[in-house]
Design a protein that fits this description.
CATH architecture of the largest domain: Roll
Number of helices: 2
Helix content: 10-25%
Structural class: alpha+beta
CATH topology of the largest domain: 2,3-Dihydroxybiphenyl 1,2-Dioxygenase, domain 1
Number of domains: 2
Strand content: 25-35%
Distance between the termini: 28 Å
Radius of gyration: 15 Å
CATH superfamily of the largest domain: 2,3-Dihydroxybiphenyl 1,2-Dioxygenase, domain 1
Number of strands: 9
């Protein structure tokens, strides 16, 4: 059986970072960590208890996520799928009719998110924008 790559993260856009974070904290009890301009005003969202060492959810099947500033062309929720080899996954996307749209696509390389891993946004053949992540090894 071919290895399945799991959904490991979700992302949703915001127009007002504080309003978005406050809504999900109030309604669902999610914890939010508002990052600054050096990280694109991203908001890290914790929806499930995490292990202190790995920062991964303790309970299998749970995922955490984030909120990003809504921009033209990037205004819909997406999911992030973990892959073992992002370069091979990017090639597989292209070969199967998808498009790699994020990462340093001029150089053909994914973005390196410090402490997280290699990341690239893609569009599937149906027009859905999702992302690939090759997580950094946990020590």
């Amino acid at each position: 059986m071919k290895k399945m790559n799991p959904v490991v993260h979700f992302e949703m856009p915001y127009e007002d970072k504080d309003r978005m974070a406050d809504f999900y904290a109030t309604v669902f009890g999610w914890q939010t960590q508002r990052l600054g301009s050096e990280m694109g005003e991203y908001v890290v969202v914790t929806t499930a208890e995490v292990d202190a060492g790995t920062h991964l959810p303790k309970e299998p099947g749970r995922i955490n996520g984030g909120f990003f500033k809504k921009t033209k062309g990037h205004a819909t929720p997406s999911v992030v799928i973990a892959v073992d080899d992002i370069h091979q996954a990017m090639e597989n996307v292209r070969a199967a009719g998808g498009t790699v749209v994020g990462g340093d696509y001029k150089a053909g390389e994914p973005d390196d998110i410090p402490g997280v891993g290699l990341y690239a946004a893609i569009i599937d053949p149906e027009g859905n924008k999702i992302a690939l992540l090759q997580p950094k090894p946990m020590l």
